Structure formats: structure tokens, C-alpha cells
User: Which sequence fits this backbone?
């Protein structure tokens, strides 16, 4: 099992991007505002949420791999 070391600000950033993506998805599925506005805002929020998650995941994975290689060097 892989373990990842995450800082509190990074956890906040990850949860923020998930909240943005979730808000966009909720707007796409909801029907409280006009459809054209809802779709425009919903797709924008969903896109921002997904696109900002990709570099964060890449950073977490690369830091994990770097920590593992450093640990092997220290042994």
C-alpha cells in the first residue's frame, strides 16, 4: 500500500478543487436557474475543478516517488 505525506494547505487545495468541481456538477444537474446560464456556469466550474486537480495529483505522486527514492538512498 502506498502512503502519501500531505500538508494541511495541500489538503485544503485538494478539497477546494473538489468543491468547485462538485458545484459545477450540481449546477449541471439542477434546475433552479435558466438552463443556458446554468450550463455555462456549471461547465466552467466543472472544468476548472478538473483542470486544477490534474497538476495537484501529479505533484503528490511525484513527491511520493521522490520521498521513496530518498528513503532508499538514506538506507
Assistant:
Amino acid at each position: 500500500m502506498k502512503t502519501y505525506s500531505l500538508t494541511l494547505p495541500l489538503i485544503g487545495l485538494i478539497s477546494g478543487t473538489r468543491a468547485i468541481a462538485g458545484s459545477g456538477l450540481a449546477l449541471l444537474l439542477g434546475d433552479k436557474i435558466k438552463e443556458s446560464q446554468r450550463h455555462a456556469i456549471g461547465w466552467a466550474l466543472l472544468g476548472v475543478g478538473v483542470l486544477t486537480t490534474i497538476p495537484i495529483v501529479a505533484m503528490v505522486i511525484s513527491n511520493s516517488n521522490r520521498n521513496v527514492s530518498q528513503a532508499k538512498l538514506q538506507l
